[in-house]
Amino acid sequence: MAKHLVFIIGEEESTATLIQEKLQKSWGFEAQAFTSGEAALDALEAYPDVVLLDIDFVNAGGAGFIKEMKQGRPDLPVIVISDTRQIDHALALLAVGILDVLLLPIDENRLHIALRNAVNIVQIQRETARLRERLDDRVRSERLIADSREMQLIERLVGKLQKKDIPVLLSGERGAGHEPVAQAIHYVSERKHGPFVEVSTTIISPADLDVALFGREAGASQPRRIGAFEEAHNGTVYLDDIAELNPQQQEKVLHAIEKKHIRRVDGKEDIRTNVRLIAATTQNLKESAKNGSFRNDLYYILASYPIHIPPLRDRGPDIIRLAERFLELCCSEQKVKPTGFSREAIEAMYHYPWPGNVDELESAIRQSVMSAGGDLIALEHLPVATRPFKDASMELETEGKLFHDNKIVSLDRIKEQAVRRAIEISRGNLAQAARELEISRSTLYKLIEKYRISV
User: What is this structure's pTM?
Assistant: First the structure.
């Protein structure tokens, strides 16, 4: 078992040597004595567990020496040794992060207890860091499925962002998996203990988007609301479909990134905020910047680190892994025992092109779990469109009839049922429902109002 390392720093070499001998011979510590601050700072690479610091040395170098020593190790325990004449000065150093103060002449029992307490604190901090690291690795692995070569490349790009605190632009087809990549970036970064706040422009009306992003000041008939950029202070804002922002909103986002402050709607004061922005788009944002529909300056800030996410059809090895994860989640939601997939079902999923990407796969697994009712998911439990052509066409022939008993159903009635069904299958996700219906969000809003559909 490795011995705990203690640094002893003071102007009196004889005193430091006596303490060093006591720590090494009687208490089993490893100890190094220093009379030079520069030498002690250079030796910090040895990663001491505790520092014993003479108050006279602090007087010579000032509290700045403690700050410099703790700059790379803010959690490093520092115990100051002081005489009674300088106790007020020593206690004042608690404000710069020292752990304890010991009075001269040193009481050996008190010193031993103080060192043991410091070591215990270090052990707890290191164990906590290890647990956090394991948890972060687990979170990262659970968010990204990277069996395919394409996603393994993305995983490497995400890993390089661990020490880079810069904006990121995610591109790719709708439903390809922008959010899991954004979450992985957040959880491998130094902002991982801060908030991760998502704003999707496709499910928020344009009128409410300003408030969602920047908040709103309290008024006569409305409460104060905190926006995403304020809520995510010291964390990450994930902005989905950034191309949907109007020019004024683009300007405010640019201001938040560059100036690091925002102003609430109806507010008069600037509010400091420190966030990383991860933006996603399904459009060619470079082309939008060229034609003037998107700000050039905002685009180039975001494009400093672009990550393109390939469609699911190009990531064959990921399909079945994702299906297995969605199966586990859906079975948990529906309180049925997870089973698995038949060989035919696996082959069908692997060869289907998944035009709706990961979102469509998740929806298909949810429907299949409901259809199978706790049994093994076979080919007939998959949505018709995902099955091989012959199997799908037979079922469409028997189940796809819209007319019965020579009665004609109105187109408006068919449209209403299609909207209701899309909202039901998407579980109220209006952005997904609009995509599946191949209509715009604004058109979907009008149809919901027309047919008085409760969402």
Answer: 0.58
